[in-house]
Amino acid sequence: MASARLVNAVASKAFKSIQYSRVGFLSISQSNGLLKSFKPHCRRIHTTQLLSDKLFTKDHEWVSIENGVATFGITDYAQEKLGEVVYCELPEVGVECDKDDVIAVVESVKAASDIFAPVSGEVTKANESLVTSPGLINASPEDSAWIAKIKMSNDSDTDGLLNESDYKKLIVSLE
Amino acid sequence: MLLRCMSNYYVLLNGIRCFSSKQCIVYTTSVTDPFYNLAFEEWMFRKVDFTKTNCLFIWRSQPSVVIGRHQNPWKECRVNDTISDEINLCRRSSGGGAVYHDLGNLNFTFFNEKSEYNTKRNLKLITRGLRETWPFLDVDVNRRDDIILNKRYKISGTAARLGRRSCYHHCTLLVSTNKSNLTKYLHPNKLNLTSIATDSVRSTVRNLSDEDNTINCKNVSNAVTQVYVRQFSGAKYYEIDTKSEQLLTGVTEIAKELLQWEWVYGKTPKFTYEFDYYHEKSEQTFPITLEVKEGIVSNITVQ
Question: Which residues form the Lipoyl-binding domain (chain A) (predicted)?
Answer without folding.
Answer: 69-151
